[in-house]
Amino acid sequence: MRAAVLHETGQEKLEVLDDVEAVGFGPGKVRLRIRATGLCHSDVSAMSGVLPQPAPFIPGHEGAGEVVDIGDGVTGLSAGDRVLVCWLPACGACPSCKRGQTQLCLAGFMNAGTPNCKRPGGDVFGFAGTGTFTEEVVVGAGCAVPIPDDVPFEIAALIGCGVTTGLGAAINTAKVEAGSSVAVIGCGGVGISTIQGARVRGAAQIIAVDPVASRREAALRFGATEAVAPDGLADAKQRITGGEGFDYVFEVVGKSATARSAYENTRRGGTLCVVGAGAVDDTFQVNMFELFFDEKRILPSMYGGGDVLRSYGRAIALWRAGRIDLESMITHRVRLDGVNDALDQMRTGESLRTCIEI
Question: What is the rounded radius of gyration, in angstroms, for the C-alpha atoms of the chain?
């Protein structure tokens, strides 16, 4: 089968090969035919080494397709079912799951170290235990979540990561209050989803912050009330909040510098929500006095900060009702052979989400 492979961490290009084989099928597993996958910034971060992932590996974790076969013991799924790929399935048995914090379950992370493909040169890993830049993939049954027939594969793929992460940050983690002021730093696919989540929650002002003009323009179409470059944030804070700071600031970049900016632009008693996934050696610092005196809440948001199955259903309901726009988030479409074009589009900020049709 065909798949896009990164041979070594740090390489910027993927090689599309036709000698890859999906392996590991058996009890508790399902084989999926991938039909569409989104390119998420986490894929790029794994390629560069910011996020840990054994190589060689197949990027992609934001996918959707059809069930080809099911292993022994799998229930609730049948061949031909339409599914989205959940890269962080809940095991249901660990302490996090028992507390109801299924987004903190580590079972899915353990899959990242087990190869689910191979080629003549040896084992190939799937990013985050999935790897959707491929025609077929074998994953645990919990990674295959059935979707209704009216949800297109490309929409389901987005819901599998970026949309759920961004919406959930605003709805589950920060719990944005109606009438509040919001700033979103970083307006790629996840940032745009955060903006839509803040709009759904009834925020009065939503300020989009991004260095790329096309992304600022897009943010306005998705519900931002104003969009500024990073050097315009201080002026927006002064004009909109009288210099006090925003009620909620979302950091959707994954860098300490933008997290610090987000902290400084959050009002005393407000909420900084960290959505971006950053590097282990990039340290965010606050001093002990400001931490105590400002009483700002610092809330990390992992995969939308809530039960992902419930979040999937909510995203579909909001999309059906026309409350969120997912189709327009797909700004580019390529076939698998064009995956490196998709990477370039993301790195330059040209795309919000590129759909790779497989």
Answer: 20
